[in-house]
Amino acid sequence: MLLNIRFIIKMLGGMFILETLFLLAATAVAFIYKGDDVIPLLQSCGIMFGTGLVCYMIGFRANEYNVGRREGMLIVTLTWIFCSLLGMLPFYIGGYINTVTDAFFETMSGFTTTGSTILTDIESLPKGVLFWRSLTQWQGGIGMVVFTVALLPIFGGGAAQMFDAETPGITHERFRPRIAQVAKRLWGVYMILTIILCCFLWAGPMDLYDAVNHAMTTMATGGYSTKNASIAYWNSAYIDYVITFFMCIGATNMALIYFFFNGKYGKLLKDEETHWFYIFVAGTMLIVTFYLMQKGFAGSFGEAFRLASFQVATLVSTCGFATANYIPWGPFFWLIAIILMIICGCAGSTCGGFKMGRFMILTKNLLNEFKKRTHPHAVVPVRVNGHALSDEVVYRVLSFAFIYISLIVVGCLLLMVDGVGFEESIGSAVSAVSNTGPGLGSVGPVDNFSALPDFSKWVLSFLMMTGRLEIFTVITILLPGFWKQ
């Protein structure tokens, strides 16, 4: 069957038109603070809306019923690419980022909620552009495409394919009969949590502007800050613990949080993946706390726990905020950091990474293999929440694990060929595929990616997008079989 190109163009046009609303919000902030970014933002709005209108008109009479998984995967992938190309315009037109490579890298890092930055002086940017930078992460957190699905009745058709292609996780629990209703309710939960966090931050030492920006990038588990020193700027235990708590919330399955808000507490409290995640996080926090005390990086248990809990939460949630430079903490913590950056949070959360659900399935499958050594004829299925998983799901997780590690290895090799150091290559590749933000070495939590060669930045941009879309979506498009009729 031929691809429904007109429908793809129509949906992209609808996405660009909706994206203009977010650019207008950033423009309003620029007007309020009377910054020099008003004109660049308005020009970007015009280009974004004009492009969207042209695309929508081209596909206006598209067949909305001849839509399948291929169209969904293409729409999602092209959305991330073209929204990053158009979303970089405020940075580039305003002269705040001088090269297309850097502007695209910064914007892709925003939309994919990676949080890696090439900016060396964040505080020099005007308020409107910084607000747009935070907005890119807030949209990417729950998924730009999920947002479009929520408003899909305006444009018509194709919701299921787009939802399946974009939403992260192993399986998707459709707790409402229509996909658009699912998306609306997930966005509702996401907005409520963002507002609650904003109020908590505003009650502390942050002003309203900083509270709004950090609430958006925390719930998105993105990590963009309005300060060069990130969260360390405030040096506040209150801010550290509030953001630590909400980073963990952001790494929890949003559908289960929705059920929790609706009084169905058991779905969240009895969920096996959630148990594994919080036990893993709590255990790692304690290990790092005692390590920091033993090595003299903290003078008391309270100080060590505050440092450890924040760094563990920011890495495992793929948020990427910083309150300390963990590079001097040594190889022991570096290895822990890599493990946290790979495993990450729960399926259905806003974070990237391999996901705790897949790690849990792999672990249980491994234990079952040991049982089969002594009882070769036994049928021992992998069970999650009391239900036996099909072999297809287990095989899919094994396949994902293989391609996930392969993508990191290929990324490392490409970066090393481009002259990037060993530590930086490993840290950058893992960070990009997992959408974590900081890496190791000279791209650690208090540094940035500005010194990397241009080719490496394009490689990392591709890895960020591929990791955000759960790898299979992007890689499938690159295979010849995808394009066959």
TrEMBL record:
Mode of membrane association? Multi-pass membrane protein
Q: Which InterPro entries match?
A: Cat_transpt, TrkH
A Pfam family matched by this chain, by name?
Answer: TrkH
Q: Where in the cell is it found?
A: Cell inner membrane
Q: Which residues bind K(+)?
A: 113-114, 222, 318, 435
Residues forming coiled coils: none
Molecular function GO labels: metal ion binding; potassium:chloride symporter activity
Membrane-spanning segments: 12-33, 39-60, 72-93, 142-165, 186-205, 238-261, 276-293, 333-354, 393-417, 458-483
Entry keyword set: Cell inner membrane, Cell membrane, Ion transport, Membrane, Metal-binding, Potassium, Potassium transport, Transmembrane, Transmembrane helix, Transport
Kindly list the GO CC terms recorded for this protein: plasma membrane
* Assigned protein family: Belongs to the TrkH potassium transport family.
Name of the protein in its database record: Trk system potassium uptake protein TrkH
Please name the source species. Answer: Parabacteroides chinchillae
